[in-house]
Design a protein that fits this description.
By secondary structure, this protein is an alpha/beta fold. It has two domains: 170 residues, Rossmann fold (3-Layer(aba) Sandwich); 203 residues, Dehydroquinate synthase-like - alpha domain (Dehydroquinate synthase-like, alpha domain). It has 14 helices and nine strands. Strands 1-9-6-4-2-3 form a six-stranded parallel beta sheet, sandwiched between helices. The radius of gyration is 20 Å and the shape is globular. Fe (ii) ion binds next to helix 6 and helix 10.
Length: 390
């Protein structure tokens, strides 16, 4: 790991903790903005937090226009709608307040606002040329890490493909991570976003692009999830637990930004695009199967995961210690009642007929090569089949 050069990127400013949204106001006056496009969801638009954001913008003399995204994963169509509004209203920035879909939509609007052309032209790694308008990301879920990450995911409805965009230019200028915005999340969504953050940390830790900074952050995120996710799942009003999960989301997002995701995210994108399974849940449904497949390529990392999750892995021989890591991951998914793909109601015939396309899309998604264990097309298909049954 110390034999290769690396870089480390994150937003200019991160505000974290209960009530941190109010701390954004002092930054607004320094940003010299005239009019911003607020990208949000219907649920957030009717919340006190949204009203508070509007008040702060008004006090800071920043006009606003609001684009409410449709329900579901962000699509090329919703991005185009938001862009039209951004241009029509002559906005100079985007404030995304809501789930990862709102933040990803704001990023994609930003790509087109300054780079023009079609979104698909910027798909993949480092294809974006011009800096985006300033983006302030205020997640209401936390876990996707989009508020701090270099990634955006947008579904191309025509091709039924989830397009990944990756560039340092996609890192928001400011991330506001206030757990008070997350208390109304359902237990299932809480589990899904928490395990998305867990996957970011674990994939980064085991990635071929691992590096010293992100390894420290990844283990911190894994510890936070291990200590807080079950509590937040049991009691959504437990603010300390919510804060812990949200902080893990930030750390996980910084980890993938600098060390990349691997095979879980490569395989979850087609699953989400074809069967409309939410991103976090798709990752969670693949997590244990991936761990079984991967741990032998980096047993010391899985042993470290076990230790971080309070398993006494150092008393066992290295491989036994690594298997404890898998045991810890399985226990976490089981406690949080993560359904298998079959239990999500996906028809077996539909699933089998999509296997070839999902495998092809996973292999070309851009993060498979970072997996510590190399994987063939046949193995990807087999992993999907195993994950289907859970
Ligand atoms: Fe993710």
């Amino acid at each position: 790991m110390l034999l290769f050069p690396f870089e480390f990127r994150m937003p200019r400013l991160i505000l974290h903790g209960p009530g941190s949204l109010r701390d954004l106001e002092k930054e607004l006056s320094r940003m010299a903005l005239k009019k911003t496009l607020i990208v949000t969801s219907e649920a957030i638009q009717s919340s006190d937090h949204y009203a508070f954001l509007l008040e702060m913008l008004t006090r800071s003399m920043i006009e606003n226009s609001c684009y409410t995204i449709p329900a579901g994963e962000p699509t090329t169509m919703s991005v185009r709608e938001g862009l039209n509004q951004f241009l029509k209203d002559r906005c100079d920035s985007c404030f995304a307040i809501g789930g990862g879909s709102c933040i990803d939509t704001a990023k994609a609007i930003g790509i087109l606002a300054t780079n023009g052309a079609e979104l698909k032209d910027f798909r993949g790694q480092d294809r974006i040329i011009h800096p985006l308008p300033p983006i302030v990301a205020i997640p209401s879920t936390g876990g996707s890490g989009s508020e701090v990450s270099r990634y955006a995911m947008i579904t191309d409805q025509e091709q039924r493909v989830k397009m990944m965009f990756s560039s340092p230019l996609l890192i928001p200028e400011i991330a506001v991570s206030d757990p008070l915005l997350t208390v109304s999340l359902s237990p299932l969504n809480t589990a899904a976003i928490g395990l998305d953050a867990f996957c970011h940390a674990l994939e980064s830790l085991t990635s071929k692009k691992e590096q010293p900074f992100t390894n420290i952050l990844a283990l911190s995120a894994i510890k936070l999830i291990s200590e807080h996710l079950r509590k937040a799942w049991c009691d959504g009003t437990d603010i300390e637990a919510r804060s812990g999960v949200m902080l893990a989301g930030i750390l996980g997002g910084i980890c993938t930004t600098n060390s990349s995701a691997t095979l879980i995210h490569a395989m979850s994108r087609p699953l989400s695009a074809i069967f409309e399974i939410p991103h976090g849940l798709a990752n969670a449904s693949l997590l244990s199967t991936w761990a079984d497949f991967t741990y032998l390529s980096c047993p010391e990392k899985f042993r470290l995961v076990a230790e971080t999750m309070n398993y006494d892995s150092h008393r066992e021989n290295p491989l036994e210690g690594a298997r404890m890591g898998i045991e810890a991951i399985r226990a976490l998914c089981s406690d949080l009642e993560i359904p298998s793909i079959e239990e999500m109601g996906i028809d077996i015939d539909d699933f089998e007929s999509a296997l070839e396309k999902m495998a092809d899309d996973a292999l070309t998604s851009g993060t498979t090569d970072n997996n510590p264990r190399a994987v063939t097309r046949k193995q990807v298909i087999d992993l999907y089949k195993r994950a289907y049954l859970g």
